[in-house]
Structure formats: C-alpha cells, structure tokens
Specification:
The complex is a heterotrimer of chains A (about 350), B (about 325) and C (about 300). With about 325 residues, chain B is α/β, with parallel strands linked by helices. Chain B is about 30% helix and about 20% strand. The chains are: A alpha/beta (about 350), B alpha/beta (about 325), C mainly alpha (about 300).
Chain lengths: ~350, ~325, ~300
C-alpha cells in the first residue's frame, strides 16, 4: 500500500496528551447516564455506565437492541438528539467531553474520535461521487489544496483495499456493492487520522464473507495507524474473534466486562452465558436444542425494580428482584453485576 | 398425485428479471436463478444458504409460483404447480406456507392478531366461525403465544419475536406439509432468535413438518436442517447432509462461508480468510462464464472459465459442482 | 417479485432502540390538542352554519328591507349589521357557510370515493390497464383548472350543483393520483404477498388490506382539499360563476362587498374571516391527523 505514513502517526500517539489520566488510558467513561424526555415519556437509555479503554485496544460492546450500546457511543461523539440529557463523565485523553459546546466537540469528531455506521447506504450522499465525499472529509480536517486532497483520498481508498481506486473515485455510491460502500465509509472515517474509531454495527448489514473481510481490514488499519477500536455489535462471535476485551450491556447498564478469553472461559453473569449459549455452534450435532432464556427485551420505560435481567434469569432470587446488583470488579480484570453469578464450580453446560 | 413421490421436486428452475441499467436506456437481465434442481422428502428440513445475489429468496418465490419461474418444473407431491392456474393453484399451494424475514412487514398493521392468523382459514372456507376461532387459539399456542393475551392485539403492540410467532401461527393454520422460512430469524435479536429456532425444531418434530430454511449464514441453518444446499449467483454449489457438509465441505465457496463465520471460541486461531475467498461478489446481471465462483476462487483454473461444472457426487449423498473440489489435490497454480 | 437488491446484503438485523426512534415533537397531549382544537372549531362552524339560524333569530338570508340597509355592527336586530341592500350579514354568513361547506363536502366526497377507488384499482391491477386508466385521468388534469371550471359554470349557468360538478373535475383526478401512489407503495409490502399466499382473493386483498392502509392518507388529503375547494368556490362565486345571487356564499359576499370596500369594509372582512377560520381549521386538522397517523 502506498502513501500512508504510519510512523509519524504512531509517534504522535506515543507522546500522550498533557493532563491525560494515564499515558495508556485513552477513554474513561464514568457513571454515564443518558435520559430521553419526549412527550411525557421518560426513558433512561444508559444507566450508570463505567468503562475505560486503553490505547491500541479493541473493545467490543455487546448487547441486543435497546441495551444502550449505540446510545452511549453517540453520547461519546455528541451525536444525540436534543431530547437527550447526558450526565456523568466521558474523558478522552483527560479532556472532559460531557457538556462540551458543539463547536468544541466538532474539533474532536473525525480528527480524534471517528465513527463508522451500520448502513453505508444512508450515510453516503447518493448524489455525490464517492471520491469527492472522501476529499470533503479530508479537507474538513486539514487545509490542504484540492490536488493534494485528491491524492490523499486515493491513498485512503487504496488503504481500505478498494480495488481500482482511480475508477471507483469517479463512481456514485449506488454503483458500488455494500462491502465497497462500507470501505468508503471507513476511508472517510480514518481520513482525519483519529485516535479512536467506533464501529457501530459496521458489518451487520453485510454478507458473511464481506463481513469477515471488513473486520480483517479494520484490524489491519488499527495496527497500521495505531488506532484504538471500539466495536459495537450484537454478535458475540465477532467479539470473540476480533476483540481484546468485551463489555456486555443489558437495559442500559454494563453487566459484565472481561478480556475476551476470560469472558468465554469463565463467564459469570447469566445474561452473558445466555448470549454465549444462543450462538449456534458448527460442531453441535444437528437438531440440538439451543439453551434459551424465555421472555423478551425489557421495556426501558417501565423497568421493574432490582436487576433488569431478573424476569428472565434462570438463577434469579427474591434479592435479585428487589435490589439491583452493583457493577464491580470482583476478580482481577473481570467485572460483573450479579447476585448469583456462575462460579468456577458451576457446570457451564 | 402419487403417494410415494417426494414432497417437493424442483427441476432445472430458472428465474430471470429485466431491469434498467443506471442510465435508464438499456434493459438488462438479472439471472437470479439459473437451473436449480433438488428433491425434498416429506418430514425433511433442507437449509438453503447463500449471500446477496445468490437467488435463494427468488428461488423460494419461484417455487410458490409468485411470480412463475421462467422455466423448469416444481412438483408438489407429484403435481406440477406450473401447470395449475387460479383456484386449483391456490388449492395445491395451501400445502406450502411461508414465513418472511421482516416480522412486522408480513403482518397487516390495521389487522388484529386473531384476524391475521385466521386469514388462511377464511380464504379456504375452513369450518365455521367457532371452529376457526378454536384453530386460531390452537396454532397461537403452538407458536408459544397466549391467545387470551395476544389475540386482540395489533402488530405494533408486539415485540419482534412475538410478531414472528404470529407469522408462524398463521403459517400453521392450514396444517401445511411444507413451510418455507425465508430468513425468518435474521431480523431477530440473538436470544429471541434462539427461542424461535427452538420453536421451529419443536414444530418440526411434533407436527412432522418439512422445511425449506433459507438463510445467509451457515450457522443459522445448522440446528434445523437435515441437509444443506449452498447457492452462489443462481447456481447450486453444493448440497449434502448437514453434518457432512460442515465437517467435510467440498466446494471452495462452502469452505469460504464456513471460514467467514466468526467462531465464538476465542482459542480458535483467526482464520486466514484471504486464502478462502477474495474480491467482491459478482453480479447476477453479468455472471462469469463457466463456473460462476471462479472470479473469487483461490483454486480457479482455465478449465473453470471454459466449462461450467455440474453437480457430481463426492461423498455419500453429497454433491458439489466443482472441477477441483477441496477433497481432491490442489491444482498446480491458481490461474489469476 | 423483485430480485434481491444487489447492494448491501441482509437487511439490518437490529431495530433502532426505542430512544432512537423519531417521536413527533410534543407528545401525546400536544398531538391530541393538535387534533381536538381544530376539530372543535370545525364542529362549532358546522353547528353555527347548519343550526345557527334556528338558534339565533335571524331573518332569511334573502329577506330585505331597504329601510334596514347599512346598519353597522351590533345594531338592534342585526348582530353583524346589514349590507347595502338590507340583507342581514349574520344570516348570510350562516347560509353562505352552509353553501360553501356543502360544496366542499360534496366535491371531496365524490373525489375521494370515485377518484380514490379508481386510483386504487389502477394501482393494484397495474400493467396496461393501469396505464390506460391513468391516461384518462391525465386528460382531466391536463385542462387548465380554473379555465375549465369557468367554462363549465358559464355553459351550464351558475348554481350550486354546477359548481360542485365543475370542481369535481379537479378533485377526482387529484384523489386518483394520490390513491394510486399510495396503493403502489402498499402493494409492495410483504403482508400483501402473505395475504395472497394465504389464498385470499384479489378483491378481498383490495378491500381488506389495501384500502384500510391507504385510508389515512385519503382522509388527510380530503381535509386539506376541503380548504382548497372552499377557496375555489369562493373564487368562482367572486367571478359570479358560482352560487348565484341572491343566494349567499362567502365568495359572492366578498364579491359584492368589494364594491363598497372603502366605505363599508365590514362587508368584506366578515366573510373573509369566516373563510379564513374555516380553511385554517381544516388544514390544522388535516395536519394533526397526518402527524398522529404517521407516528404510530
């Protein structure tokens, strides 16, 4: 691949910003709460989220729809609608993002924190050539002349492994396949050389083979550009293959966090176990019944007291229905929120 | 209608569409399904897997004659559906029902659950009002829904999983022999997906149903299928017993699909995907000559461009359409 | 059925969480108010126009006593005064409103039923028959609107019935177009396919599936259209091609009043306010209903 100067970028990252909480900690989220007040309805989409991401890590935020993973990532970028109220703390390289004015946030977006969304069809302008859209992104972050911006856009296209970059430059989004459009989105997202890239269900809408290719691309880019990656997904299998650490969310709160391998080998929280169990494994015998939990996702507008997973949990007790378990690190590097977690002696089958 | 004919027999099914190109000036032909044949016995579940452009959903619609395929035969219990018209077709077709991908989209938002489930019974004038009401309650329970709580609801008051169960109940109403599930769990959350997959399994064994289970992911059809077929660009690449296909895939595309599934076992080494498939899916408008997969296949040779491979037996009841299947020694040099 | 789209892959597997779905600004109370207030206004207007004369003792709209001419507002027997000929304004407002509203209801009613069904049929059947049907509609639309209305009114002579006829030439094609577009959209929905696969016959699909799903749009269009028709009727009457004198309509009241506009502006202002309030209420109600239905 030509052009991409990985060395200076990585060097920049090595020199941590002054005032950072720790040289290795890029992002620290503390007690994040997002409330939506709309037409008399009040929904707490995120309820007290705590996590930190180290430089160069890949963290997966896993959960089903409505768990708050997308809302919390939008909060990071300041992309929530006006009906949302964000409290708590989001510190990026030591700088507080919550409450920051839109103008200041814009300086972060694209240049420091960038995002790739699920549906490239809706994120790309259908009336603009893809090359021009990348150029636009490039020029948003640096005042370089058009000719250099075009060259940089072509370099980016090659970096994201778009075949025949020069031809594709002139094409419109509808002329590209879904996988190619997503690569364009990634090119736009990394054009500002962000330190943190958030992939919000970036591969959900793609074919399996394309999904695998895009994930490999993201990992490759991460290594080359020294980026930190947060991947948001409902697919635990994806997290298992590509993430260093997994954070599982349910009903707006974190319920388990651990390095990937530890999470799978020593799962504690029953919801995480349910997620793991629900993945059909290729080496299972055919017609095997999957281990399922009953019920459906909770209604965020009407959560029962206690642990939000209690209505569906096979291990729920009265205590679970009355008091909400705190999310805390109970084993080295392994945090969870549960009154009756699975222990090392439990048979996890 | 013969008694020992297979439940469903599809012979050389071809389906094509005309679309306009991006300038609007020329008409192009989309070769959605190009000669697919298979047999489904009663009580059997066949999984059909393919990515975008594979033609799997078009195949399902063509089997149902909605719209009719361009050529080829569809025999339901020996009866050729292509030769039937109007009410006779409708009568024959009541034995095949379909569950769609979008749980809400397949339910009329202005109707109530009980009306939705009752619709097939009304259309075929089954029983009187009371009998229909009882049958509706029966199938709702079979699908895991409490009739008392849900019968009067409208689709927007249901969760995704509940809506899909209503669709399943509707499909069961006429006691069909075959249910086609067109990506029926793809839009559901993972935990609900597992519930519904279990439901499909349970219904299969309790009611002796047959399935055509269409999905884009090999892992999704694993639990429900006896046999699995893999499609690419309108053609069948491989078809065989489920366990054999997963353990000893023959066609390079099957290998690629298996390799793309992210394994939930973090100890497994990350698969080298580049070795199994490269490039972008080709277009069904202008499919490659010879073997349609050759433009992405790491094993492609000159022969693959010149001669289209036919399905041949490579294992007990396992067929693949490939000149250089994975079980045979690798060709000398990839011709790319 | 259409082939799989060749872009993108499997449609999004994750629904937007509740908090991300767009909710109309305001909320349930505001939405209800947006419907109930204009609806209430319209009820009052209808009540006054059709029942008003029996509640307020007013002379007949065409009764005139030259001695009573040119009375101002709030005079002894005439709440809104009289005009230069001696007609009681209040009475003419009531009866004029009745005429205007009758025209609006009739025109839009016929439009929605005839045009709506026509368009729905064309949209569902498709193909050559659809094309032929819509070309017939195009013929009607192609005529320059107001000219056609004028021509009809002139040919047939002014009367309420002829006004309704002339304006129906507008509303039927408009409803047909809308109904066809809505039908085309609904026709592609999966539940229509599911209904056909369940064995439901085409006429039942049309009546029980397509129609209920396009009805909200037709009704909204109806309400918004009523405002337009009221104004059009006013225009026709202003040109003396509508409701003939001495029968009142808000339009011809404005027409008659404009000759003495500087001397007695009241004669123009009062019917204009009536027209304005009615059309505004119709539009607000149409908007409110549209918002309510699309947010479900």
């Amino acid at each position: 691949m030509s052009g991409e100067s990985a060395a200076p970028a990585a060097a920049r990252r090595a020199a941590a910003a002054p005032g950072a909480a720790s040289a290795t900690e890029l992002l620290a989220v503390e007690n994040l709460r997002v409330d939506f007040h709309s037409g008399g309805r009040h929904v707490r989409a995120v309820d007290g989220l705590n996590y930190a991401v180290r430089r160069g890590q890949t963290v997966a935020m896993i959960g089903e729809s409505g768990c708050g993973k997308t809302v919390s990532s939008r909060a990071l970028m300041g992309l929530l609608p006006r009906t949302a109220r964000v409290t708590g703390s989001i510190r990026f390289e030591g700088r507080e993002l919550v409450g920051l004015a839109e103008k200041r946030l814009r300086a972060f977006r694209g240049a420091e924190i960038s995002m790739v969304f699920q549906d490239p069809t809706r994120s790309l302008n259908p009336t603009m050539r893809v090359g021009d859209q990348i150029v636009e992104a490039v020029r948003a972050h640096s005042q370089i002349p058009r000719a250099s911006a075009r060259q940089r856009a072509l370099d980016l296209m090659r970096l994201v492994r778009l075949p025949a970059a020069a031809e594709r430059f002139e094409q419109y989004p509808h002329q590209l396949s879904g996988g190619m459009r997503q690569r364009v989105m990634i090119a736009i997202a990394i054009s500002g050389e962000p330190k943190l890239l958030i992939a919000d269900e970036a591969t959900t809408a793609l074919d399996v083979t394309t999904q695998a290719q895009i994930m490999e691309l993201l990992k490759d880019l991460q290594r080359r550009l020294g980026m930190t990656l947060i991947m948001i997904s409902h697919d635990l299998g994806l997290a298992a293959t590509f993430a260093d650490e997994v954070l599982v969310m349910y009903a707006g709160r974190a319920v388990e966090r651990a390095p990937t391998r530890k999470l799978f080998e020593q799962v504690r929280m029953p919801y995480t176990k349910a997620l793991i169990d629900s993945i059909p494994r290729l080496d299972d015998p055919p017609h095997m019944e999957l281990n399922v939990v009953p019920g459906q996702a909770p209604n965020l507008a009407a959560l029962p007291p206690g642990c939000p997973f209690a209505p569906r949990c096979p291990r729920a007790s009265e205590e679970c229905r009355e008091r909400e378990p705190p999310f805390s690190e109970q084993e080295p590097d392994h945090a969870w929120a549960c009154w009756h977690p699975y222990g090392p002696k439990d048979d996890l089958r | 209608m013969s008694a020992d004919a297979p439940l469903l027999e599809v012979k050389d099914l071809v389906q094509e569409f005309t679309v306009r190109d991006s300038s609007g000036a020329h008409k192009l032909t989309v070769h959605a399904v190009s000669g697919v044949s298979f047999v489904l016995e009663a009580g059997e579940a066949l999984g059909i897997v393919g990515e975008t452009g594979s033609g799997k959903s078009t195949l399902a619609r063509a089997i149902l004659q909605a719209p009719r395929p361009k050529s080829g035969d569809v025999l339901l219990r020996g009866q050729n559906l292509g030769a039937l018209r109007g009410r006779t077709l409708a009568e024959a077709r009541r034995n095949i029902q379909m569950v769609f991908q979008d749980p809400y989209g397949s339910l009329d938002p202005t109707w109530r659950v009980s009306q939705i489930v009752e619709e097939p019974l009304v259309a075929f004038r089954v029983g009187d009002r009371e009998q229909r009401r009882r049958r509706v309650a029966e199938v709702l329970e079979l699908a895991g829904l409490d009739p008392a709580r849900h019968a009067r609801r409208r689709p927007r008051e249901l969760s995704g999983g509940q809506a899909q169960r209503v669709a399943i109940a509707r499909a069961l109403a006429l006691d069909p022999a075959l249910i086609i599930c067109d990506e029926a769990v793809s839009s559901l959350d993972v935990l609900i997906r597992a519930q519904v997959l279990n439901l499909f399994e349970r219904l299969r064994s309790e009611l002796k149903l047959s399935y055509l289970f269409i999905a884009h992911d090999l892992s999704l059809v694993k639990h429900v299928s006896d046999r699995v077929a893999v499609m690419y660009l309108g053609k069948l690449c491989e078809i065989g017993p489920a366990s054999a296909l997963y353990e000893r895939p023959q066609h390079p595309y099957t290998v690629a699909l298996l390799a793309s599934i992210p394994s939930p076992d973090p100890r497994a080494a990350p698969t080298q995907l580049e070795a199994t498939v490269h490039g972008e899916p080709a277009s069904p408008i202008d499919p490659p000559s010879g073997c349609r997969f050759r433009t992405r296949c790491p094993r492609a040779q000159e022969r693959c461009a010149a001669e289209e491979p036919q399905l041949r037996m490579l294992g007990p009841d396992q067929y693949a359409a490939c000149h250089f299947p994975v079980s045979e020694p690798a060709p000398a040099q990839a011709a790319q | 059925m259409a082939a799989q789209p060749s872009s993108g892959g499997v449609a999004g597997a994750i629904a937007l969480p509740l908090s991300e779905q767009s909710v109309a600004p305001g909320g349930r109370l505001r939405r209800t108010l947006k419907i109930s207030i204009p609806a209430g206004m319209l009820l009052v207007i209808f009540f006054l126009c059709f029942l008003g004369p029996y509640i307020f003792a007013v002379p007949a709209p065409t009764y005139t006593n030259i001695l009573d001419a040119n009375e101002g507002l709030f005079s002894a027997h005439h709440l809104l005064g009289t005009d230069q000929v001696g007609y009681d304004i209040l009475s003419r407002i009531f009866y004029g409103g009745r005429a205007s509203l009758e025209v609006a209801l009739a025109v839009n009613g016929i439009g929605m039923v005839v045009g709506g069904l026509f368009g729905m049929l064309a949209g569902y059947i498709g193909g050559l028959r659809d094309a032929v049907m819509m070309r017939l509609i195009d013929v009607l639309i192609a005529f320059p609107g107001i000219v056609l209305a004028i021509a009809i009114a002139e040919r047939l002579g002014p009367s309420e019935f002829h006004v309704i006829l002339a304006l129906t030439v507008f509303s039927v094609p408009a409803f047909a177009r809308l109904s066809r577009a809505a039908t085309l959209r609904v026709r592609e929905e999966t539940f229509i396919v599911a209904a056909r696969l369940s064995g439901t016959r085409r006429h039942r699909v049309l009546l029980r599936h397509i129609l209920p799903n396009i009805l909200p749009q037709l009704i909204t269009f109806n309400l918004l259209g009523m405002g337009i028709v009221v104004v059009l009727e006013g225009a026709l009457s202003f040109l003396n091609l509508g409701i003939p004198s001495p029968q009142p309509s808000w339009g011809n009241m404005i027409a008659n009043g404009q000759t003495v506009l500087t001397a007695e502006p009241r004669l123009v202002i009062v019917p204009s306010i009536a027209l304005f309030v009615t059309v505004l209420s119709l539009n607000l109600l149409g908007d409110g209903l549209r918002e309510h239905w699309s947010s479900r």
